[in-house]
Design a protein that fits this description.
Number of strands: 10
Structural class: alpha+beta
Protein name: AraC family transcriptional regulator
Helix content: 40-55%
Strand order of the largest sheet: 3-9-4-7-10
Strand content: 15-25%
Domain HTH araC/xylS-type: 192-290
Keywords: DNA-binding, Transcription, Transcription regulation
Pfam family, one: HTH_18
GO molecular function, one term: sequence-specific DNA binding
Radius of gyration: 19 Å
């Protein structure tokens, strides 16, 4: 299944949790499931943890790129802009696990003393997880356990235990928080507003001026921020987002290619098919047939 991204009022991602009553999201995925081997850039309040099972991927967090090799992973703190990709379009099999901080806040002191200091630590937007570092290997081990037991009837209880262990290790090894980088924080807020505007209006015709206006900046600064943090232009970001929406429709509906093209914000089926073939190395019809034959293990955002 290829779930589309839903947005909250603040334009953060509304995560499709595995359980209606527990804020857990556990998926195994292949990077080839995304247009041009690149997941959508997004942010959410949940803590995100990635564990590479095989292959390699690059991971962009707030514009900084990390290379994750076989057996390695990354912790992405709450509220950070991030996405995984492969510049050379190489396959990567990985786990993607999202856990909302409130999952551990059974009593207020937990949130006050441990979770808020961790998620609000400006010195810890993310952290590479390497198996050679004992405490980081402990986190990677917990991620594999979360996936192995995801269908167990007591998986929420097991997840609570694993999440507690993960957060305790992160809290114990977190760097001291520096003074706030107000300029960087403002730029990230502007970028979130512009990306959120695209995610809300992608079905419509959108101009660069409108995207810049959503961030209350000029067009030149808009382009600089997209280039710095996303390594792409606003128009490339828009097209990638529309392509990811089309992938969702290809895999989960029986809409025609023309209907999918128009529903995803493309002006015509021919332009959509041309762009899809360029970024996915196959036409939309071939991609749909391949997925229906069950050749992809899943999709995570």
């Amino acid at each position: 299944m290829l779930p589309s991204i839903l947005l909250n009022d603040d334009r953060s991602e509304r995560v499709r949790y595995d359980h209606p009553d527990y804020p857990l999201y556990i998926r195994r995925a292949l990077l080839s499931g995304y247009p041009e081997y690149q997941a959508p850039n997004h942010w959410h309040e949940d803590i995100e943890l990635i564990c590479v099972l095989s292959g390699q991927m690059e991971y962009n967090v707030n514009g900084e790129i990390f290379v994750l090799n076989d057996g390695e992973g990354i912790f992405v703190n709450s509220g950070q802009m991030h996405f995984g990709f492969s510049e050379k379009r190489k396959e990567c099999d990985f786990l993607c696990i999202l856990l909302h901080p409130l999952f551990l806040c059974s009593v207020l002191p937990f949130e006050r003393d441990f979770l808020s200091p961790l998620t609000g630590n400006a010195a810890l937007p993310c952290l590479m997880l390497r198996p050679g570092e004992k405490w980081q290997a402990g986190i990677l081990s917990q991620l594999r356990l979360l996936y192995e037991h995801r269908e167990n009837p007591t998986s929420p209880l097991r997840a609570l235990s694993s999440f507690s262990m993960i957060c305790s290790l992160l809290y114990e090894h977190a760097p001291a928080e520096p003074e706030r980088e107000n300029g960087r924080n403002r730029d990230l807020l502007i970028l979130k507003n512009m990306a959120g505007f695209i995610q809300q209006k992608y079905m419509e015709k959108i101009s660069l001026a409108q995207i810049a206006s959503a961030g209350a900046v000029g067009e030149s600064k808009c382009c600089r921020l997209f280039s710095r943090y996303f390594a792409q232009s606003p128009n490339e970001y828009l097209n990638r987002y529309r392509l990811n929406k089309s992938v969702d429709l290809l895999c989960n509906t029986d809409l025609s290619i023309t209907e999918i093209a128009l529903s995803s914000g493309f002006g015509s089926a021919s332009y959509y098919a041309e762009l899809f073939r360029k970024w996915m190395n196959q036409p939309p019809t071939g991609f749909r047939r391949q997925r229906k034959e069950g050749k992809n293990q899943g999709y995570a955002v």
